[in-house]
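Design a sequence for this backbone.
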């Protein structure tokens, strides 16, 4: 029992013993400038990211500008075929009309500009380009230019009916088995090839021909700008 008058120190779970020494100092925190609060990563990394983003945007704009400029200066339907600049594949095909008409041989027209147009009766774009072909034929036929039409993957009866309906009065050849179309790498219609007087493929276009572009190509070959 304790002596009277002597203070009694309470004990219990809520009473923490005193160590008698100084309390440990709180861990120091690294000071952060207020302007950097809420930012991800150190400043040099953020600056590098901004330059990468800026460079990517500038590069993309430059690429789109170059492509747009190229499209303005070039025919978007023009395809540089593997045959361009090479001798045109020869052919000796029966006339589409039959009836004892002489065959159509490419070799007969050496020294002339030849336009070969692959088409089909089921082809909507072939109807669209028809007026351009008519205008080309009417303008250049008296200048030694030959236009030859060759149906592609089309029954002969349908081809003949289509040619009659549209009044095609240029040479038309049948292509049994599409052997000539395959030799020219045709994979759809319409496709048009321009052959130089020297017998080489000077130009290929996929899709409906444009009269102005086709006339320019023919005129250049007639002037001797390309062989």
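Sequence:
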């Amino acid at each position: 029992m304790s002596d009277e008058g002597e203070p009694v120190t309470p004990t219990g779970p809520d009473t923490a013993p005193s160590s008698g020494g100084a309390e440990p100092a709180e861990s120091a925190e690294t000071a952060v400038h207020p302007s950097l609060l809420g930012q991800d990563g150190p400043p040099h990394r953020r600056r590098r990211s901004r330059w990468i983003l800026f460079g990517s945007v500038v590069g993309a704009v430059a690429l789109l500008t170059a492509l747009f400029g190229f499209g303005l200066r070039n025919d978007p339907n023009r395809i540089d075929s593997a045959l361009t600049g090479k001798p045109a594949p020869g052919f000796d095909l029966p006339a589409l009309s039959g009836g004892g008409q002489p065959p159509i041989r490419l070799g007969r027209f050496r020294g002339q500009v030849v336009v070969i147009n692959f088409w089909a009766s089921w082809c909507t774009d072939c109807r669209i380009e028809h007026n351009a072909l008519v205008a080309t034929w009417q303008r250049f036929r008296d200048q030694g230019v030959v236009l030859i039409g060759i149906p592609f993957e089309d029954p002969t009866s349908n081809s003949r009916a289509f040619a009659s309906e549209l009044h095609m009065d240029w040479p038309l050849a049948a292509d049994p088995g599409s052997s000539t179309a395959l030799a020219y790498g045709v994979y759809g219609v319409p496709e048009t090839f321009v052959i130089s007087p020297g017998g080489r493929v000077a130009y290929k276009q996929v899709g409906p021909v444009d009269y102005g572009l086709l006339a320019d190509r023919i005129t250049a070959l007639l002037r001797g700008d390309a062989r």
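The longest helix spans residues 43-73.
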